[in-house]
Structures are given as structure tokens and as C-alpha cells.
Amino acid sequence: xxxxxxxxxxxxxxxxxxxxxxxxxxxxxxxxxxxxxxxxxxxxxxxxxxxxxxxxxxxxxxxxxxxxxxxxxxxxxxxxxxxxxxxxxxxxxxxxxxxxxxxxxxxxxxxxxxxxxxxxxxxxxxxxxxxxxxxxxxxxxxxxxxxxxxxxxxxxxxxxxxxxxxxxxxxxxxxxxxxxxxxxxxxxxxxxxxxxxxxxxxxxxxxxxxxxxxxxxxxxxxxxxxxxxxxxxxxxxxxxxxxxxxxxxxxxxxxxxxxxxxxxxxxxxxxxxxxxxxxxxxxxxxxxxxxxxxxxxxxxxxxxxxxxxxxxxxxxxxxxxxxxxxxxxxxxxxxxxxxxxxxxxxxxxxxxxxxxxxxxxxxxxxxxxxxxxxxxxxxxxxxxxxxxxxxxxxxxxxxxxxxxxxxxxxxxxxxxxxxxxxxxxxxxxxxx
Length: 432
Ligand code: URA
Description:
Elements: H1 3-11, H2 18-30, H3 35-48, H4 52-64, H5 71-75, E1 80-84, H6 92-102, E2 107-110, H7 121-125, H8 137-147, E3 149-152, H9 160-170, H10 178-192, E4 196-203, H11 213-229, E5 233-240, E6 248-249, H12 251-262, H13 268-284, H14 291-303, H15 306-317, E7 332-337, E8 342-347, H16 349-361, E9 375-378, E10 385-386, E11 391-397, H17 400-413, E12 414-417, E13 427-431
Helix pairs in contact: 1-3, 2-4, 4-10, 6-12, 6-13, 6-15, 10-11, 13-14, 16-17
Bound molecules: uracil.
Uracil (URA) binds near residues 86 and 185.
């Protein structure tokens, strides 16, 4: 295999065979194909795309790049999993996992890091002092067996190709393309062995590629097809990402909000999405219940405190301190005041995500250090009435200069007008 030939063929709109894609991916994983060639190939894919067969071959090669787990067989149960295509303020897995586990359904998940303007569950979890995202495969399985939940990184040798490719895409502007997103997500889901998966496909300004509802349906179909080929049941929720999810954007701030939601005290849109995802996961599990009963049980686990108990046991099991006061706080806080009386028309998710990235909540290069404490709290959301001078948001920063810069960026993300904007719920559609 000559990598330049494969790059050239894709650049010129040609197709690659299954074997060529496999050799490229396995060569990259071994280090034989360097980052610069892989970046060029990803950029060629960005412009030329991959067809269904090529996307399946890519997913399959990524799964084969490392070990796989048959979680269902190891547990003797049907295991469930969830994943998001990436959004701003998306801490859903951190709240969904313990609620589902508290309802008696094993939840084992491999998560990712921040990607471009969107955060990543692993970075969020690492803001918890002591939390280990690197478990061995045996530890991962044992923990799901013992306490019903584990969320890990590309542990051991699971999908090493995605780990490398994901980090490369993050810093080479090659995130926003369906076949790379679908194969990245589905390779992780297939390799960790859950039988049923709920995928949260983000739609709107803060989604990768600013995808529309129609584009979201196309991505959903691609992932459902990849799941079907691997004998996994996949349900896709298409959800609103025109504004940040919940209030918190930034790693430790989001962990705090996820914990609040697990104990029934989360922001409305985020709590709604969490309960919806839980209901769907429980309906896909071996409990033999439907979505309505799943919703009832998920709400019950939040109200009776069992979800919070599981959350605390889970965080401790992975070495972390579940007490929210243990989370690092940023030294500088600045309000973002409303410029006028009115109704919030929009809170640009991408702009808020980029503002948090600039504060240090994400990476600009592969080796950047993530500042877990910084971020933005968006108090006012679409449709809220505000008075001039009210706090629209609050910036949590490391120093005054970055705080001031961020206040301006967040202010620019808000649009305040006279009329109430059309109502739009968090759940836009379901594809199964
Ligand atoms: N989440 C992933 O795991 N991969 C992507 O490419 C996007 C979101």
C-alpha cells in the first residue's frame, strides 16, 4: 500500500477498496502511516466523502485495530450504551449512566475527548479529582458487573485507531463529516460489546457541521445501518443543539450540573433529554418494558435517590471524589449582562463552545492541556425574558484578560429581541 496513492485517489473523488482502507487504518495505528498523511486523507474524505461500503470498511478496520469485548456475554445480560455526536454542554452520559444502572440495567461505555468546539465526556470526568478513565478491560467488565456502570477511555487496546484518528481530526478541521463521525462512534460501540445503543444525534448551530434535521436523519440512518451489520440495535434521538444544552459549558461545571440532574435538580432541557435517553435505553434492555414505563422508572430512580447513590459509588469505583466541592473552581468569575430588556432569541451554541475553548476548556493542538475549572454558565436560554443588566451568563476564567475576552464572545452569542421565539423542545425526532 502506498498512502500517497490512496490520498490522491480519494482527493480526486475515487473509491478505495475494503483492503486498502483496512491497510491504511491498520498502518496508521501501527505508526507506519504518519499523522501528516492521515490528515491529508481525512481532508480528502471531508471533501469527497465515503460511500456506504467504504464507511463500513472503515468502521470494521477501526474495530479490528485492537481488542473487542463481548460485554453481554461477560455479564450474561443485555448491556446498553449511549453516545452523542457531540455538542456544547453535552454532559448527558454522566447523568444517564447512573440512572440507567440504578434501574437495574448494566451500562458500559467508552467515551471520547473534546472535539473541536464540543466537549468530551472523558475530559469532563477527569475534572473529578482522582478519577481514572483508563481501566483495563478486566476492570471495566468487573466494574459493570459489580456496580452496574463504567465509563472509560480507549482503555487498553480497544479501538486504538479511533483514539489516534480522533485526536488528529480534532486539530485538523476534519471532524464535521458524516462517515468519519459514524465510523468513529460505531467502532467504539461495536468494540465494547453493548447489545443496544441510543445515539443522540445533535442538530443545529452547535452540532458538528451545523447539521440540519434532514442531515441528522442521514447520519442516523448511516449509524443504524452500521449497527445492523454488527447485530446491534440502535435508536437515534435527534436533539436540538442550536443553544448549549443545560446551563453549564466547561468540564468541572458540567460534572456539577450532571450530578445536580441525577439528584433531580438539573436544568429543564437537560433533565428532559436525560430522562428521554434513559427511557429509551431501559426499553431496549432486557427488562421487557416500554418507553413510558422506562421513563417512569428513570424518574423514580432520580426521585428516590438511588441514581445519586449509584453515581457516588461509580465515581468512587473509578478512583474519584464524588463530592461536588472537590471540583476545582476557576479563580475569576465575570457576569455577562443583558444589553437590553427583551426575550432571548438565541444563544449561539458554537460561539459559546468556542468561547469556552478559548478559555482553555478544550484543545487547539493535540498536546494542549485542558483547564478543567474554566467555562461558561448560560443562565438565560431561548425564550427567557430578561431585563437590561440581568446576568445572561457567567464566565469562569483563569485570569482577567481571558475572562474579559470571553465575556465579549458570550455576549455576541446572545440575541435579545422583542417577540417570543417559536417554541422548540429538545427532542426533535426519533429514528429507529
Ligand atoms: N463522537 C465521537 O466519538 N466521534 C466523532 O467523530 C464525533 C463525536
